[in-house]
Amino acid sequence: MLGAILGAVALTLVASLVVFIILIIAPLCLIFQKAGVSWWKALVPFYNVYVLNEICRLPWWMFILYFVPFANIFAMVATAYYLSLSFGRGPAFAVGLIFVPFIFYPILGYGSSAYTPLSYTPFSGGSSAPSAAPSSQTVSQAQVTTSEQAAPQGSTQPQGEQLAAQQAHQA
Predict the structure, then answer these.
(1) For 39, which DSSP code?
(2) Cα 167 to chain center, whole Å?
(3) Nearest 5°: phi and psi at 132?
(4) How far is CA 83 from CA 9, 16, 49, 109, 161, in A?
(5) Is 132 in a helix, a strand, or coil?
């Protein structure tokens, strides 16, 4: 009788661990990969929260707030909010990350959401407009278009010189 109870408890613990890995840990690893961070950093306790704050471009002291009672709630909300912005989602998605993480983290990790770093650093005293930076692909396309306009066909000027020449021409 005791063996059956212990077996059921062990089976429940193993099943819970598998579900936790599939719904939280694996998506967090994928989120880190999408942000250009090594996936294994999501497996290290406490360090993964620090790196998640770096992904959200939050200041270092925000990590310290996770260890302060009641302030940790503010830190969690800020991290969820800026994480959702970094993946092109809005405040409603941040609410989902806070209250139903086992659904919303897999949406970020397994879904098609692309990471776009914020164009500003939250809580730095600078611009606080919540927008994402243009993707590197968009920037490179704009530079190519600009450089094509700046240099005549067959020009041998390097791209940087072409951009400088165009800026001097516009001034």
Answers:
(1) G
(2) 34
(3) -95, 150
(4) 36, 26, 12, 12, 38
(5) strand
pTM: 0.66
The pLDDT tens digits for 25-65 are 999 999 999 999 999 999 999 999 999 999 999 999 999 99
Question: What residue spans of the chain are helical by DSSP H?
Answer: 2-20, 26-34, 47-55, 61-65, 71-86, 91-99, 101-110, 136-150, 159-170
Residue 112: in which H helix or E strand, if any? none
- 109 closest CA partner among 20, 50, 43, 29: 29
Name the token pair of 61: 């002291």
Longest Cα separation, the chain: 88
Tokens describing residue 63: 């990590």
